[in-house]
TrEMBL record:
Species this protein is from: Ovis aries (Sheep)
Keywords: Adaptive immunity, Immunity, Immunoglobulin domain, Receptor, Signal, T cell receptor
GO cellular component: T cell receptor complex
PROSITE patterns in UniProt: IG_LIKE
Name of the protein in its database record: TRAV8-10*01
Matches recorded under PANTHER family: T CELL RECEPTOR ALPHA VARIABLE 8-4 (PTHR19367:SF24), T-CELL RECEPTOR ALPHA CHAIN V REGION (PTHR19367)
Signal peptide annotation: 1-20
Segments forming domain Ig-like: 20-113
GO annotation (BP), single: adaptive immune response
Keyword Transport: no
Amino acid sequence: MTLVFTLMLEMLLFLTGAGAQSVTQPDDHITVSEGARLELKCNYSSSVSPYLSWYVQYPNQGLQLLLKYESGDNLVSGIKGFEAEFRRSEKSFRLRKIPAHWKDSAKYFCALS
């Protein structure tokens, strides 16, 4: 069985002193097979230490926080078997789940504050 994960990006812009913050996502949609590795990438731009979050929105439901990074350990554990890796050198925040399940088919949002 093939799963389709619909990705959308929540973009938050704040003026913080001399610079602005933003997030971008390279892919709009990905297809993942049942039991395979799910990985979504979020790139950010910020002149200050970022606070990053991943949210999920299942069909006919509101947004739900999966996990957030504030500081400290670069590997963040979330709910429902999700984890994310913060990579300061790449300015990225990668959401992962192994194995992916058909119930994971949803819209995923990356946020920066």
